[in-house]
Design goal:
CATH superfamily: monomeric porin ompg
Number of domains: 1
Oligomer: single chain
Low-confidence stretches: 1-20
Distance between the termini: 35 Å
CATH topology: Porin
Mean pLDDT: 86
Order of helices and strands: HHEEEEEEEEEEEEEEEE
Helix content: under 10%
CATH class: Mainly Beta
CATH architecture: Beta Barrel
Structural class: mainly beta
Largest sheet: 14 strands, antiparallel, barrel
């Protein structure tokens, strides 16, 4: 789900007491981070991508860290870190930690001058994750503890998120994942993601470099406000470079609109560096993500 323009502004200027719940407020902070994922989240790969879907590669251990920065007018920053290890026939297990906070919120009276200290507003989570591949099918689950604080109020809860990925030969894959899932009903604190990917072309680029082009489509639901649709593509340039783009039609909170995001991944030996940004919304600027991942083999 992509956070809507009016809601983004409300987060930047302070959250009103009329917002549905602390859980909803924390989820909106993570939707600020989700705008930098340049493909349907259910198809995301990498150690830090475990936060978006628990189904990941099991062959080697992985260590990953993503850093996030929203536009200055919003003032939110965050990080996602994860480590995973394969354990023979059990698949892979690991831990994932994530935190997103909004700064610059102050109390005022009759004048714009701040009164007292800053208002704390953050959400953080820690979870134990597992995934395993059975032939062409990958399954995974993450038990996650969520902690959200806004000013003097605090919300704590547990969620069990799942992920399923099915490969169809070497041409296609489909996937489903949940985030913050606590009940089988629309809830502002949770998201359900479904994505599909199909190989459109593969061959040689410039006569010497292997290339592959895939098309992607995804939907996100499970929250109030409608279904978000994502249409994107990915281009592999040899082994080391991947380019991803996505165009999202968000229907959140009745404010339908379009948003784009793009990402670049570069592999160097056991390491992979990634850069991603969204296209900005309501003239507020773009949100950026920088990631580093290491294969522990």
């Amino acid at each position: 789900m992509r956070v809507s323009g009016p809601l983004l502004v409300s987060l930047a200027t302070g959250l009103s007491q009329s917002l549905a719940s602390q859980q909803s407020a924390g989820s909106e902070l993570w939707r600020l981070a989700a705008v930098t994922v340049p493909l349907p989240p259910a198809l995301a790969t990498g150690a830090a991508a475990t936060f978006w879907t628990p189904v990941q590669e099991n062959r080697y251990g992985q260590l990953g860290l993503d850093l996030l920065q929203t536009p200055a007018v919003v003032g939110a920053t965050g990080l996602i870190g994860a480590v995973r290890f394969p354990i023979r026939s059990l698949g892979a297990i690991g831990v994932v930690y994530a935190r997103m906070g909004l700064g610059g919120l102050v109390r005022t009276n009759d004048s714009p001058d701040p009164v007292g200290g800053a208002i704390p507003f953050y959400t953080q989570s820690g979870g134990l994750t597992w995934s395993k591949t059975y032939g062409h099918t990958g399954v995974g689950a993450t038990a996650t503890y969520y902690d959200t604080r806004f000013d003097g109020t605090r919300s704590e809860r547990w969620a069990l998120d799942i992920g399923v990925m099915q490969s169809i030969g070497d041409r296609a894959r489909i996937a489903l994942s949940t985030r913050g899932m606590t009940r089988l009903a629309n809830d502002p604190g949770q998201d359900v993601n479904v994505g599909a990917e199909y190989r459109l072309w593969h061959g040689m680029l410039w006569g010497t470099t292997a290339g592959r082009l895939v098309g992607r489509y995804g939907v996100e639901f499970g929250h109030p406000g409608g279904i978000d649709h994502e249409l994107g593509a990915g281009l592999d340039i040899g082994t080391p470079i991947t380019l991803d783009v996505v165009l999202t039609r968000e229907a959140s909170y009745g404010n339908a609109g379009w948003r784009g995001a793009a990402g670049l991944r570069v592999s160097v030996g056991r390491y992979r560096i990634s850069f991603a940004r969204d296209g900005g919304i309501s003239d507020l600027g773009s949100t950026f993500r920088v990631g580093l991942e290491a294969s522990l083999r």
